[in-house]
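We both want to read discrete structure tokens more fluently, so let's practise on a single case. Once you have written the record down, we can walk along the chain together.
***
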Amino acid sequence: MASLIRNAQNTTKTPALPAILPKHVAIIMDGNGRWARSRGLPRSEGHRQGTENLRQIIRAAVEFGIEIMTIYAFSTENWGRPRREVQLLMRILEMVIDRELEELNGEGVQIRHIGELNGIEPRLQRKVREACAMTQYNQRLILNVAFNYGGRDEIIHAVKTLIASGIRPEEVNEEAVSSALYTHGLPDVDLVIRTSGELRISNFLIWQGAYAEYYATKTYWPDFDKEEFRTALFDYSNRRRRFGLTDDQLNDLADSDDDRTRG
């Protein structure tokens, strides 16, 4: 993977990017099984190809200058899938850590796990913790891996953390809750990308994505390539994020900023 990232940085001519880029991109990597079925292949091959595709998307994120990327790798609901498929997904994560960790660390990618490690095989727990510890000071790209993650579970975890800290009811506010989430210290999500044509959030980053822009594509995850990633970024750049305000209010704020700049 290091060679992929290095080649991206050494490209002499890079196609244009939008002037406005999201700082934090989240991806629901959906459609591996359907990609495989459409080709008469086992679901396991879809997961393997989806893992390979992640390599080029990480490369693209580095090239595009994305600061934070959160990927939905395994949800709390995925435990309900066939046992063999769950075991395969666990092996894939372990394989990725073994194969890619050293190079990712060398290229300045910080790996963070968001979700619960309880219930995961102890050897894999150890490898996840080691990967996070090894890369904790890297800053080129923060890669959040949502594994054994659920948005509702995260909020429950945050509430329990606040209660255990002794916080008083009147001290509970958005800042306090955000500080107790798995993503504490990071900005909220700007753009959520979902592949495979589904139009739902699937219990993913419920709090952090409250005002995120959404980009849905019918492309299955193994076929979601760098150029469609670029298309999603251009689509995002054409949105006007209001955060509950009106267009007139946003125009007034922009005029005030211009006045301060000229002053």
